[in-house]
Amino acid sequence: MTGLEYNSTTGEPFLRLPAPFSSFIITPPRMADVARSVEIMNDPFVFKWMGRSTPYSVDLATAWLMKVKAQTDVAVEELRNSTEFGPVSGCPVRHIREELPDGTDVFIGDVGLVRSGWTEVLDAEERVRFVTENNARAAGDPEIAWHIGYYLAPGYNGRGLMTAAVKTIITQFGIPQMNTKYIRSSAFEGNHGSLKVLQKNDFVMVDTLVEHVRVGDEKTTLHLMEWRAS
Ligand SMILES: CC(C)(COP(=O)(O)OP(=O)(O)OC[C@H]1O[C@@H](n2cnc3c(N)ncnc32)[C@H](O)[C@@H]1OP(=O)(O)O)[C@@H](O)C(=O)NCCC(=O)NCCS
What we know:
By secondary structure, the chain is an alpha+beta fold. The chain has helices at 34-41, 44-47, 58-81, 124-135, 161-178, 192-199; strands at 5-6, 13-16, 24-27, 95-99, 105-115, 146-152, 182-188, 204-215, 218-228. Strands 1-2-3-4-5-6-7-9-8 form a 9-stranded mixed beta sheet, with helices on both faces. The two termini are 17 Å apart.
């Protein structure tokens, strides 16, 4: 059964993380998150693992948030218009927020469960073919390849938060409302925290692409990880 709830004041959907993380929720992105996302992404601890060679700007963040908000808006609409419990084509929530005692919340990270973009496939034609075929699959198709990606603001690391966020979005929305059976992910060599988050959520390493991804002048090794429903 889905764990999706709705904010009684704003109508915004959200997933709540389980104890001891119950002050953290996952909601749709908001355009007000631009400044904070720039701050988080440019923190050296986060930046080094995100595959960027130039600083993350307000313009890039604005364009990214418009894109992902458009995706979550579609899912929110699908849910609003559905008369019965049925599969939806995408996930309506991805931004992790900490609820504060005064009733406000603060954006602290991202956990996106989206259709795979096969970004590790270097041949552009092949990549477009995979993406087009996958995006054409109807809501609930068990063959859809999903992708999960995430980051957390420094200061929130190392307490099990992302392990819980990944588990929550898969078990409380992906499986019950998108019929998710197959998820792909990846992490750069040396990103022990990210690999551990995936392994603790039953992902297994299926390939290691040596010096595969160009980041600035360097080529980085990428571990490919997969989760399949048992
Ligand atoms: C990777 C990241 C999301 C992990 O989030 P987190 O909430 O700190 O992870 P968790 O606390 O759930 O940790 C899961 C496991 O990884 C371990 N771990 C976390 N960070 C680690 C690190 N930097 N080095 C080694 N192990 C680490 C934890 O100890 C835990 O293992 P344990 O349960 O055996 O103790 C976070 O560090 C981050 O945002 N990093 C920068 C961005 C990034 O790398 N994004 C992913 C790109 S693929």
